[in-house]
Amino acid sequence: MGTLNPKKSKLKPWLKKQWCIGKVDGEYLAKMENVLAVYAQPTPPGRARLCFDERPCQLLDEMIAALPIQPGKAAKEDNEYARKGTCVVLLAYDLDTGQRYTQVRKQRTKADYAEFMHELVSTYYTDVEYIDLVQDNLNTHKYGSFYEHLPLAQARLLSHKLVFHYTPKHGSWLNAAEIEFSALARQCLDRRIGSLEELERQVSLWVSERNQLAVKVHWSFTAVTAETKLKRWYEQVNPACNPS
């Protein structure tokens, strides 16, 4: 069998990309540029930049124990499995240090969001005055979640320290945490995991290894790039608007 030539193999039906932009209006462009400004700005002393996102996970257990892995051969598993419910992985990624912080929770409520942010900030960011936080506009991602589920002093502290930067609707591609979740899906969640405890263990191992290497996301898409590549969007929003 000959060696595959990537230049000749232009058709790749096994690869599929989903990129839903949705309606692009002035609000979309404004939020996009706000997030891109966070990525582009140098971080002054006393400030941090984080990206946050959540990913639902389905717990699947083996009906029959998988066969032991043999050298040189792929792991084999039965095609039948048992559903063990769902859970959520919460992830915050630090753009400047290349560290990521995760929790596995049974659900993603306002309380889960508030508790995660409190533990994150009180553990790792006590000496930081402000944190620019990029996240989507989910109804739980509000300052009100802190006041509804945390002691007043904690709610006030988080509301003062966290500066929210919302991605536009259908703008998850602007959240660097999505890149981390893509790596997590490929390197950790590509197997059947049957319990919350085992998922916590697997995710913790992945985080430890990646943090030890301080793997960073190199974000190259800027507002200047947007003016060129997304010129059509700007003109659709305002025909008189000519990015320059």
TrEMBL record:
Residues 50-199 form the Tc1-like transposase DDE domain. It holds the Pfam family DDE_3. This is IS630 family transposase. It comes from Spirosoma endbachense.
